[in-house]
Specification:
There is one protein chain. About 25% of the residues lie in helices and about 0% in strands. The radius of gyration is 13 Å and the shape is elongated. By secondary structure, it is mainly α.
């Protein structure tokens, strides 16, 4: 998970961040009187999925 973006891969997270920053795919928050918060930069390394303990 990265900044409340959930995906199966690093590419899913990258796409979710781009969508958020472009104002697509995600709805607006009604009652919030300000600009959308910018998502933080992704780290310079690919995100790795967390493994569930078995």
């Amino acid at each position: 998970m990265w900044w409340n973006f959930i995906g199966r891969s690093h590419d899913d997270i990258v796409q979710a961040r781009e969508d958020w920053m472009n104002g697509t795919r995600f709805g607006e928050v009604h009652g919030y009187d300000g600009a959308p918060l910018p998502a933080p930069e992704l780290p310079n390394v690919p995100l790795k999925p967390r493994r569930r303990p078995r």
